[in-house]
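Sequence in, structure out.
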Amino acid sequence: MIYYLLLPVFSLLLLTVQINILDILFSGKAGLEISLILVIYAGFYLSAIRGGILSFVLGFFLDSITGVVPGFFVLSYLLIFLISKAVSLKVYAGGMIFTIGFTFICALFGKLLIILMYEVLYGINVFYDILNISFLQAVAAGVFAPAFFVLFHRLEVLLNVWEARSPDRL
């Protein structure tokens, strides 16, 4: 129960850090999609309900903050979560090389969805402009994913301990 109450607060805090602080650090030229890494982590390690709700909330807040097309990030994050969940059922997702590679591929897939959205909805070809930046962002997401997976796991354990000690469980 505590998980679902704290989820919007932590999701909004994560997106604030991702959008504002990292944008200041990198001068708006590149960014690290921590929310995407969290969605992939949710696909690997959380239940379908918890991970699906987390992916939806992150996508909803990202749509609310930056979305050009309403529902785009909700759809793309849920799609990436479902792909991650399906892969986690078939493959052991604990290896660092696999985590880096899979996160890189998912980040490129997310950027491809953005390129397709601009092409289909607006008739704008942003493929050349976004290709170099997207590749670098996908590399950064892949490289930093194992460290964030460890951080997310520790936060999840802390939250589970806190939830287990809550008065409604006694």
